[in-house]
Design goal:
four-stranded mixed sheet, 3 helices, about 15% strand, globular
């Protein structure tokens, strides 16, 4: 799967990592729903760091359709809330 982090670029991420990323996504969703800004900031950073760690960066000039789009690290709680689906940011 190709994952785009807004403002950073794309990484190729094996689908097998989605289960562990969904745990962070669930935490992020709960923090957004409760308005926990410090928790949201911490968990968003952890989620993006895991995607970077587990994924292989694509060249800057590569442009592939993204299966998943994640917010930038400096996105606000409200901006991320607008990006959410019923499953959070990561389906499943």
């Amino acid at each position: 799967m190709i994952v785009r982090i807004m403002g950073e670029g794309q990484v190729r991420l094996d689908d097998s990592h989605l289960t562990e990323l969904n745990k962070l996504d669930d935490e992020l969703l709960a923090e957004i729903e409760s308005g926990d800004e410090p928790g949201f900031r911490r968990t968003l950073g952890a989620l993006l760091e895991e995607v970077r760690r587990l994924g292989a960066p694509l060249p800057d000039d590569a442009l592939h359709p993204s299966g998943l789009i994640l917010p930038s690290p400096d996105a606000t709680l409200e901006e991320v809330r607008e990006m959410l689906s019923d499953d959070g940011l990561i389906p499943g």
